[in-house]
Amino acid sequence: MIRKLIIATTLFVLAGCANVEVEDYASTTPRLDIAEYFTGNTRAWGMVQDYSGEVQRRFTVDITGTYDGNKLTLDEAFLFADGETDRRVWEFERVDDHHWVGTANDVEGQVNARQYGYAFHMRYPLDIEVSGRTIRFSMDDWMYLQPDGRLINRTAMKKFGFTLGEITLVFEQVNS
Questions:
Q1: Alpha-carbon span 94 to 48, nearest angstrom
Q2: CATH code of the domain occupying 28-174
Q3: 138-147, long-range: CB within 8 Å, 24+ apart, which pairs?
Q4: Quick one: pLDDT at residue 1?
Q5: 67: closest CA among 96, 90, 36?
Q6: Which of 42, 73, 61, 38 lies closest to 175, judged by CA?
Q7: How far apart are the C-alpha atoms of 117 and 21, rounded to whole Å?
Q8: What would the pLDDT profile of 43-80 be if each residue is shown by its tens digit?
Q9: Distance CA 101, CA 52 (A)
Q10: Could you tell me what percent of the chain has a pLDDT over 90?
Q11: pTM of the predicted model over 0.85
Q12: Which residues does 34 contact at the CB level (< 8 Å), separation at least 6?
């Protein structure tokens, strides 16, 4: 019995150490290039869920993207279901076909982002107000381009290595 418990515990710990890397998607299609996808107007619909899966907030985001061949600027206007608004401006500089360095007005420091195949990934710190106090989360942000052109975004909001919330968005390009 003790031997089975040790084996089960070891497998559980090892499974927790396994991570998917964005490079694992290198041979997948359709290929996502964030500059191509976000240049122009994009709309997203999203929700924030707590650790139990309960939806805490719903929102839409209108994004205006401009690209000059090296720098991608994403001007994001958020409208939450309760009427609150917010704005984030991302600036990404292309390093090569797979790597970007980004900054945002509410993100501390530079963010290293990678894109391979249909996937895009970045991690960054973000201060979020929760119940009247500010908590710094580590955001683990993944985007996946779908065959129909929509982009699905899942972000794990982590603190001390534990996922305390998740954000899910669906992006769609808007003809202007």
A1: 29
A2: 2.40.128.20
A3: 142/22, 143/32, 143/34, 143/119, 143/171, 144/32, 144/118, 144/119, 144/120, 145/30, 145/31, 145/32, 145/37, 145/118, 145/119, 146/118, 147/30
A4: 66
A5: 36
A6: 42
A7: 12
A8: 999 999 999 999 999 999 999 999 999 999 999 999 99
A9: 33
A10: 84
A11: yes
A12: 72, 92, 100, 113, 115, 120, 143
Mean pLDDT computed over 15-38: 88
Secondary element (H or E) of residue 7: helix 2-17
Q: Where are the domains of the chain?
A: 28-174
β pairing state of 40-50 and 107-116: unpaired
CA distances from 163 to 88, 139, 158 (A): 23, 9, 4
| Alpha-carbon separation of residue 61 from 2, 76, 117, 119 (angstroms) | 52, 6, 25, 20
Q: What is the pLDDT of residue 129?
A: 85
| Tens of pLDDT, residues 117-171 | 999 999 999 998 888 999 999 999 999 999 999 999 999 999 999 999 999 999 9
Nearest alpha-carbon partner for 153 in 67, 63, 81, 19: 63
On the question of a cis peptide bond just before residue 30, with omega within 30 degrees of 0, the verdict is yes
Residue at token pair 């908590």? 135
